[in-house]
């Protein structure tokens, strides 16, 4: 397993293909570093007493200890452990831990490559296992590029005016394939080793060229990462862990990119497009049953702390609102536990969490997140929006006045009150906060997608039969 | 294990102490029978192929097969099985299965009698085990009488103007104790074999006389059951399972009732009053994580069926609303699964479900129930409120007209459309429906009680520490 | 203007065509009387000091004083007065005042008959005015029969397998027309003088036979009223106004009914079908902006009273919930005020309330009603569902015990505590309560209908233009 | 009336006492300009055909035409006009129009100065009228500084450890008073001409020194404005109105500031502290019934536009969500209309909007705002969070690719799609968006404050009497 330093060194050595604000930047660009800090936490975890039991697991392939972010889930305990690890790490970084994308894609590929082979006699699964071993041994960080830019949402891939609006195979060669298209919302991509590409939707026979899955190094020729970086507002003096985090998302453009066959895991088997898309979504939504409670922990911790500082923690409406935050967090987490416990095993041996529980939990998380932010703002009060900038706190003309007038709880130092309000201000009133809200809503699939998944997966006829039985309706 | 017939025969033999509408009625009174029908389902279950594996379990005490409604949960699988059995049985009776009260009280007593003994050197646990063996061998039905009438809610028991407003010990004799008071909302009591009494709240030293728990036959001298029976509207010709169900609740008055010592499980140990009250509540709320999804199944089944009959099942707003019903049911069920999986074992060996997951699930169920009914009404349409009475459907002057004008889906017979609407009308527009709503809200404790339990049980300091760490606040 | 007695006497003299529970019953049947009591309130109002200024208005047609329930709204003050009168009268009867249907239909007809004449040179408006004068002078009570039974909801009237599933003209004669069909949810019909029939939806050219509006006496040959009566549970001794109220709804069957031309207000002008349907809906929804706050007043009054009796009125969560009840009531009422103030005048001079405000208010009322009931149940506690029946309170064996154990607030008599809980039990746990919930949801059009009305009426392009302007998007 | 240029020129001439990021900045600092642009809109309005009828009004004092932002409301039409003007101007600037604070404070002062004089024989009202004439004639912009920093929220002003935590009179001189303290959340203060100070809460006799109201120029000696500026992200090439707006809030410190008597409007009359605080809140919340619908117009316009660009505007779930946005906007606006129509006149002749309607409307706005943002994010999709920065759109290496892959609706140019997504990204994923959310929640008083106002103002006893009447409870 790598150290965080080894991870960063590797990033520095990569071909520069990251564009930010109109120019190419190195991967250790100052605006990318906050995201790298987050991923580094997952490397550090394997050496921390309270985390290593969650973070390190034995590879079923090699029997070697590996980082859980590279593991194929063998049983329900693996799923429970992934969920718990995700929650705990999100608490540490005050937000999304970001590395889950890779492991979620690996698990989905492990299932589907096997299934395609079983039907078509292909050899995708063998290729995948070879790739997995490489991935585990090198302790890699993977981005999963799923969401195509999609053009006209009412049309299928082959019906689009510009066929590249969904990523597709434009050429098949002896040694590999050439692909063209663009994938959106690729968190972690500018500081990932690898990009794993999977389809974004169910496909029809005419969409065969769009049925493609593969993995390539993130700096492969022809790949362009157009990124947007987000972080809390930079600080000069008031250092704190919350000020070190951030994330970069990439619009990843594949401009005629060559992929060798040993890295191709689906090519033309359109009937498995939806299956792979849905499986990645399921694994990723299951990760949300860990990360959303983790982020809820941060929000409720901040809410409880500021309520204490404001002297209102005993008020019933405050306790009610805290209880509501707890209820959201723990119901979502329950859904992930239930999904883990009620998992089933695919033909490859990989465990798949129950899709109904996974989706109801993710749906609950996604449709309550804005309200969680609202509650934090409610208990914090307006100061989070009007807090004077950090520099005023170090200006001799204003410092003393600020320290005088921020005092609320005489037992808490002015600095700590300042720290508390600045953190919440950063969480709520920054582009970081806005991006987290949108990511919490749409990440892993928008609420409407989970609703569709829920109704599709659910045995509603069984429930209608209950109603018919009670009503005395035969047949 | 008894048959349903043996259960009913025993009821008939009991001393008549049930009051209804101003007079004493026998236990097989026509208005009580719907509740008896519900309980009979739990006796029949042990012989039904699809239910017996859930309904029959091996007693840890005797090694004999017993009905699960008399079992002490030995491990998480017992808790999962109780939850699942409860859901399935509620589907069969289209509502509350009612027999859970007894098993929930037994489990709570098994824990607390042991704990009191450990502290005070008493012998309550031995007494309890003797009683449990009797209860299991006779396959009894138990009501749990917990909720005191409580008088002025801002005062403790010993502060009440009338000390009897909480049930208390008024005399201690050599052979037993005499108690006086009244317990409210005692579902099943008029058709139960036994009444198990536990305290309703935490107690202070001055409340020692109110710290009492015991079990007595429901027809014990001095016990008066003032009942209110509820059922769907009686039918003459259109028979259906939904028309056979109902429930009776009792205001149970203990008018100087003698309880022999072997039936007394707590007497004066005020510091365990809150513990026992909370434990019964926890077990009972855990039962709600099974029954509320079961009732939700009935509601969503009826909603899906009537949507199909109305020809609107493909409309997106309809599918959205069905998805919301599914989400409520399965999140609540998830909470119960998580509570079971994350249970812990008391000193008696009894397993206690996790209280946070139990309470967030029960809270979610209780605060969404009215909305579930609203959704059913929404999809069914106004006819459920204005459906002409059954007799009009058999009056030659009107029958043909009604059958002509009820037609919606030409593929469904007029009778089945009638059956569907009548069932929903009975679920929504009857005293039964109103009582189910109130019971779903308050049963096992009102939402405000669950919120209090959630905040009391939750380690909020841990979450504040996360916030402090992120903000850089030391100490 | 008539007295209540004159109104009842007239009912008694009508041809018996009301079917209940399989047989024909007279109009003063004991189960119909509760509804008659409600309507009588509107006759008594004209003599009551606090009501007569609202209830009596000058006819624009004759200059005579008339009951406002027969008035054509001439200006915004008329609309404001109708709204306020409706609220106040609903408070008096603890529910729907029921007489609004007639006045809402009259106003809609006054607009559309004029508009048809203007286009087609017909003489509907003159006929209508003659009818209106008769209606006002005889101080009549009118039911509006709008909702057809509708059969397959995905098909238009002329596409139905059975063409009678929407009411239609089956014959045109020299002296009038013959109609056949059935109208559902006709509140007040069994105790109304007149039935006013209007279409239920927009119509296509092929639907011309279904484009029909008319008014006939409720006991016209061929009309059959199949009713369902609902009231709170009958009481023997504990008399109270809430125990006197109720309502009957009719499924009204028109079995080849002859309507003379002077009573026909639309016949074949299909392009005005939707207009008339929508206008009646608008007036009726505007009435809901008065009645729903009135019913909310009853619910919040009961909630505040029982909170006082329970000793919890100072608790913050209780005050919060009461504040939420107030907010719902007054927002809905605000919507009605805004709709009145922003009304416009039709070519007939009749004032039409603003449809957007009307619909958002009705929508808000309809989607919050179940929650209002939930709040009442929440504050009242479980006793409303398990309160022993009235007779037990007069049985010497149980009376004293009941009076002892119901005591909560020592300053309130046992009888008053009983009265309070019985009223709330009747509001929540009776078929009356269930029917009120469904009526509050669907009456005047289901929420989905109001949403459609809102989006259809709203100038969304104007709002898109604002967005384009801000974004710098031209054209 | 001034021009926008005159307004800006005056700002430039003021004494520099604005602190930003650790140093003093001039009032036309680049980060303050976005807020100045917003205020300029109110000066330009008087010359725009579609706005001037709303923006210009005749002074009741001088008979001269003045800007409505300096007007004392004489009747309900003035209140309706202020509400409408506020909504329309907010649409123009895509957010808060900011100038309402001054007019709201003036109206509150007009009422209370008169009332104090009536009781105490003081001459505040005369002073106020003189000040008002000056304010109107010079067409000034006023900030209202109300919210004290408040220290320990469980203590009254005189109980605070540091008495300055509420602004107070520290010295009374012959020619005026000296005050010390700090006021928070002072939007507009760094680009206002005047600061109007009013108390923040009800006061006790011991709080007499804190009962103070006055008006001073914003650059008065001793006043320090510590500001935080917020704006959408600056743009280089893609100019648009939305990119020009912003706001600055000030923590305003009064460091022993002298106020001459002619500018003092309350000094020691503690019993009017709560009255003045509540009146300003009422006027300001009434302004919210105009601005929140205006901001909702921007959100719903953007939502409808992006739904059209995404090709999903016909989907039912999209129309449902748009309908919900409309319902929120128009219910809030209805509340303001009702509050205007049901206003009453104070002894000074000033009209005061109805407080119940005002507060329920503001409460509805405040508790739905986060959900409005959520809906916009929902319909826009994830691209708003991951849209590559503006500069990438002008980098020759990436421009063409971005324009290729942003295409959704072939009928809309890539530039316009870019414009649409960038605007929404700026509204949702920027510190501007976060500040707007917090301001929408807390501005004019947090939801809990409106709930308190609602229950305090409401005649709940009247509603209890209705319940008692229906239940048959006498006395």
UniProtKB/TrEMBL annotation, chains A, B, C, D:
Domain HpaB/PvcC/4-BUDH N-terminal: 3-266
Presence of keyword Flavoprotein: yes
Alphabetical UniProt keywords: FAD, Flavoprotein, Oxidoreductase
GO MF annotation list: oxidoreductase activity, acting on the CH-CH group of donors
Keyword Oxidoreductase: yes
Domain of life: Bacteria
Domain annotation HpaB/PvcC/4-BUDH C-terminal: ranges: 275-472
Name of the protein described by the UniProt record: 4-hydroxyphenylacetate 3-hydroxylase family protein
Species: Metallumcola ferriviriculae
């Amino acid at each position: 397993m790598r150290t965080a330093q080894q991870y960063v060194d590797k990033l520095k050595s990569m071909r520069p293909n990251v564009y930010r604000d109109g120019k190419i930047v190195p991967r250790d660009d100052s605006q990318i570093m906050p995201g790298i800090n987050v991923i580094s936490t997952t490397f550090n975890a394997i050496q921390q007493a309270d985390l290593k039991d969650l973070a390190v697991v034995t590879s079923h392939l090699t029997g070697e200890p590996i980082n859980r972010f590279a593991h194929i889930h063998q049983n329900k305990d693996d799923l429970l452990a992934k969920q718990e690890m995700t929650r705990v790490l999100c608490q540490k970084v005050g937000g999304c831990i970001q590395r889950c994308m890779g492991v979620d894609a690996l698990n989905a590929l492990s299932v589907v490559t096997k299934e395609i082979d079983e039907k078509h006699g292909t050899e995708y699964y063998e290729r995948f296992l070879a790739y997995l071993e490489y991935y585990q041994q090198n302790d890699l960080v993977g981005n999963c590029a799923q969401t195509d830019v999609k053009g006209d949402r009412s049309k299928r891939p082959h019906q689009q005016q510009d066929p590249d609006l969904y990523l597709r195979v434009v050429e098949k060669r002896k040694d590999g394939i050439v692909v063209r298209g663009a994938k959106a919302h690729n968190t972690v991509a500018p500081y990932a080793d690898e990009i794993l590409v999977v389809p974004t939707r169910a496909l029809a026979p005419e969409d065969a060229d769009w049925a493609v899955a593969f993995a390539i190094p993130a700096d492969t020729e022809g790949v362009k990462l157009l990124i947007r970086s987000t972080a809390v507002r930079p600080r000069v003096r008031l250092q704190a862990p919350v000020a070190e985090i951030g994330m970069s998302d990439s619009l990843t453009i594949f401009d005629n990119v060559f992929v060798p066959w040993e890295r191709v895991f689906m090519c033309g088997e359109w009937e498995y497009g939806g299956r792979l898309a849905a499986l990645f979504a399921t694994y990723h939504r299951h990760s949300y049953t860990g990360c959303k409670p983790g982020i809820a922990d941060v929000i409720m911790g901040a809410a409880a702390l500021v309520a204490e500082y404001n002297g209102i923690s005993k008020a019933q409406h405050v306790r009610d609102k805290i209880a509501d935050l707890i209820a959201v967090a723990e119901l979502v987490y329950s859904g992930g536990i239930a999904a883990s416990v009620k998992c089933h095993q695919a033909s490859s041996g990989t465990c798949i969490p129950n899709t109904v529980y996974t989706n109801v939990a993710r749906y609950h998380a996604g449709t309550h997140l804005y309200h969680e932010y609202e509650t934090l703002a409610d208990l914090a009060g307006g100061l989070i929006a009007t807090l004077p900038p950090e520099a005023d706190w170090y200006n001799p003309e204003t410092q003393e006045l600020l320290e005088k007038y921020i005092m609320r709880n005489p037992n808490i130092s002015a600095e700590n009150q300042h720290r508390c309000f600045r953190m919440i201000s950063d969480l709520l009133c920054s582009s970081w906060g806005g991006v987290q809200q949108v990511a919490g809503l749409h990440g892993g699939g928008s609420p409407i997608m989970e609703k569709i998944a829920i109704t599709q997966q659910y045995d509603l006829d069984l429930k209608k039969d209950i109603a018919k039985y009670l009503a005395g309706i035969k047949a």
